[in-house]
Specification:
Layout (H helix, E strand, L loop, with lengths): L2 H39 L2 H32 L3 H37 L8 H23 L2 H31 L4 H33 L8 H8 L1
Length: about 230
């Protein structure tokens, strides 16, 4: 079999597994949208739908990892091809964890509904942050599909905005609990919700960092933006 034929087969396998990752991303995005709807409307049916999707997300993660292991064992890739497969594996793990955070949001929404405090808590800012996190994940998946390093840097900067939203919400929530101790229990649920939303942004950021790893071969985790930008020059 010619080297060109082998290369064509390998490219086809890479394309197939990349498509599966995008499918997983779409499924996780739908989970987030359902979770945000559950939060904005305090809708228990939407929360239940998020939980019902979780098993499918977990199964897809296992299937993609199995495909990646098979490709690596058979093709023994090197250089950028190997970086791509490693990055796909890490991106898949991050997407599965986003699904976990969406399920956590759904679980907290159910808790707030059952507590009877759903209409009296300051959740508007939380919905704004949730929309930001969802949008960031969508941008990260699009940038990953195109291996767009410029978009990746923009995503890393935008994640800082979500972190600021989280910090501001926590301060407001603490004030709210001090003013009305009866709301402490449901307010703590909102605090866990806020943390779950922040983590979705973090996972989107992780995916953006993987793009730079694939293209430049540089591990930019925990690096300041200025250093990351210098890597891309």
């Amino acid at each position: 079999m010619s080297d060109k034929h082998l290369s064509t087969q390998f490219d086809s396998e890479l394309s197939a597994v990349s498509t599966r990752v995008m499918e997983l991303g779409g499924l996780v995005e739908s989970q987030i949208h359902q979770a945000i709807y559950a939060l904005s409307q305090f809708n228990i049916e939407a929360a239940d739908q998020v939980t019902a999707t979780e098993a499918r997300v977990n199964a897809m993660e296992v299937e993609i990892d199995r495909e990646l292991s098979s490709i690596i064992a058979r093709r023994q890739p090197t250089a950028r091809d190997l970086r791509l497969l490693i990055a796909i594996s890490k991106a898949t793990a991050n997407l599965e964890r986003v699904g976990d955070e969406a399920e956590k949001i759904a679980r907290m929404v159910r808790s707030i509904i059952h507590s009877g405090a759903s209409r009296s808590l300051p959740s508007t800012e939380l919905r704004v942050a949730a929309d930001m996190a969802s949008g960031l994940l969508r941008k990260a998946l699009d940038a990953f599909a195109r291996l767009d390093t410029t978009a990746a840097v923009a995503i890393l900067k935008e994640d800082d905005l979500i972190d600021k939203e989280f910090d501001g919400f926590v301060r407001k929530l603490i004030t709210y609990m001090m003013e009305d101790p009866r709301t402490i229990s449901p307010s703590l649920d909102l605090l866990f919700l806020a943390k779950a939303i922040e983590r979705i942004g973090d996972h989107a950021k992780n995916i953006a960092e993987l793009i730079i790893y694939i293209v430049k071969g540089a591990d930019v985790r925990h690096s300041p933006i200025s250093e990351i930008e210098s890597v891309l020059r």
